[in-house]
Amino acid sequence: MAENKYIGKWKATSVKVMDITEPLKNSTSILSINADGTAVYGEGEDRKEYTWKETGYGLYLDGKSDMKLTDEEGRLSTRLLGFITVIFEKQD
């Protein structure tokens, strides 16, 4: 699993609501995908821990609140509340 293209740190860089995309200029939201099959999103009280698996569309994070991440041309995106999309870009 250490050779997987998803392993590393992913930063939330923009958010899309309906058809409007806005950059997250001062974002500190980091998603860490680890080689041991675990993932961590956020920090402090907002920290969420997951296990992950690669899928046909990208990644699936299994945890207290599951997350589906779609690979879109080297970026990962996830939908929240059905109409908000958060876009992550790899940092390392």
Question: What is the fold's blueprint, element by element?
Answer:
Blueprint: E1 8-17, E2 20-23, E3 30-33, E4 38-41, E5 48-54, E6 58-63, E7 67-72, E8 75-80, E9 84-90
| Text of the CATH class | Mainly Beta
How do the strands line up in the largest sheet?
1-3-4-5-6-7-8-9
Give me the strand/helix succession: EEEEEEEEE
Total DSSP helices? 0
> Biggest sheet, in brief?
8 strands, antiparallel, barrel
Mean pLDDT: 90
Structural class, from secondary structure content? mainly beta
Low-confidence spans: none
Helix-residue proportion: under 10%
Give structural notes:
The protein is an all-beta fold. The chain has one domain: Lipocalin, CATH 2.40.128. 0% of the residues lie in helices and 59% in strands. The protein contains no helices and 9 strands. It has strands spanning 8-17, 20-23, 30-33, 38-41, 48-54, 58-63, 67-72, 75-80, 84-90. Strands 1-3-4-5-6-7-8-9 form an 8-stranded antiparallel barrel. The radius of gyration is 13 Å and the shape is globular. The model has no long low-confidence stretch (mean pLDDT 90).
Give a brief description.
The chain is mostly beta strands and 92 residues long.
Q: What descriptive keywords fit this protein?
A:
92 residues; Lipocalin; mainly beta; eight-stranded antiparallel barrel; globular; 9 strands
